[in-house]
Amino acid sequence: MAITPMNSNLYKIIIVISFLALTTCPVASAEECASNHQGACHNRSEALKYKIIAIFAILVTSMIGVTLPTLSRVVPAIHPDRDLFVLVKAFASGVILATGYMHVLPDSFNDLMSDCLPKNPWHKFPFTTFIAMFSAIFTLMVDSFSICFFKKRITASSSTTTTTTTTDSSENIEVDGGCRKVNKELESLSHSHTHGHEIEHGNGNTKVVSAEQLLRYRVIAQVLELGIVVHSVVIGLSLGASDNPCTIRPLIAALCFHQLFEGMGLGGCILQAEYGMKMKCIMVFFFSVTTPFGIALGIALSKVYTDTSPTSLIVEGVLNAVSAGLLNYMALVELLATDFMGSKLQSRVKLQIYSYFFVLVGAGGMSVMAIWA
What percentage of the chain reaches a pLDDT higher than 90? Predict the structure, then answer.
């Protein structure tokens, strides 16, 4: 059969329609997204009761977890110089690593690859891993530049003081259990007269820590808390906006364990940083209240906020990706690599093997909890 101009145009139209049908996918409607999100279990009043329980339960477990390492003053067995503290920190580092890979990263994928978002560009490009990658690089930049900046300040301060004072044992500073201030300048991370000298830790065991190492501990603690706080607010907001009791019930238990173990990891970093009591209380406060605050905010915005709207999905997905990159970097580079490549574990193979075991237990346990949270 001869192809006339009319038939030729018809064939072209059919080809174009077929191509569009194969390469495009309609975005789910708001009603479809809402119904898929709510499921069969949807009860606003019952969900509100569980949310209130979640606020208090998560607040208490978060405070217990983050303050447990500070009991080293009461229980000498968990002092930072002891082997038990090394094992507990290895366990908590595994928890933080699994939090980034098994909880935060999948949540970001679910948000940014949702059917409620347009296929172009959200389904065409892996935004989650792209953002997480640059978040890890940015964390490295913050870590590197902050250490460089404060080392220069320490060096400059040290050089000016050595011209007017002689070096003697009075420049050494004793810190009892990490609760006395190292000194006013180093506490604010801006000046120090201890560069090149030593800081002695009490509690019967003398541990020598340079001002530079102490500064690094403080940067690690602050950056780690930043990543945890971002993720905690997002998780709390999602829980507070949900009206599904069937989802909230197991999520409460899972988040309590999550906050407990994650708090232990952060508490260990805060303890090593030798902060004064005021700074310790501030960091403990922000870690403890961020998830309950997110839940309360979600409850307040539940009538106008829906976690299936495109804007909410994009914001949550991006924040989770940023938090995932930060947590993964901190867990692998600043916590695990620093400890396992350090002199203490490198010189004791048996302790190193036990530490790896505790890392696997922490990461494995937190991974299993991903079933419910």
Answer: 18
DSSP 240: H
* Predicted TM-score (pTM) of this structure: 0.69
Q: Partners of 174 in the beta sheet?
A: 200
CA 193 to each of CA 118, 145, 151, 175: distance values in angstroms, whole numbers, following the listed order: 57, 21, 12, 15
Q: What is the number of H-type helices and E-type strands within the chain?
A: 15, 3
Cα dihedral 345, 350, 356, 360, rounded to 10, equals -160
Q: Determine the Cα–Cα distance for residues 154 and 196; give it in Å rounded to an integer.
A: 10
- With beta carbons less than 8 A apart as the criterion, state whether 256 and 58 touch: yes
228 neighbors 289 (Cβ within 8 angstroms): no
Q: Which helix (H) or strand (E) holds 209?
A: strand 208-209
| pLDDT tens digits, 266-281 | 888 888 888 888 898 9
Q: Is the peptide bond before 76 cis (omega within 30 degrees of 0)?
A: no
Contacts (Cβ under 8 Å, ≥6 apart) of 190? 150, 153
Three-class secondary structure assignment of 18-60: HHHHHHCCCCCCHHHHHHHHHCCCCCHHHHHHHHHHHHHHHHH
With 0-12 / 13-18 / 19 or more C-beta atoms within 10 angstroms meaning exposed / middle / buried, residue 185 is middle
Contact 279, 214 (CB under 8 A): no
Angle, CA of 221, 225 and 226, to the nearest 5°: 120
Residue 230, amino acid: V
The set of residues, in sequence order, having a beta carbon less than 8 Å from that of 140 and lying 6+ positions away, is 329, 333
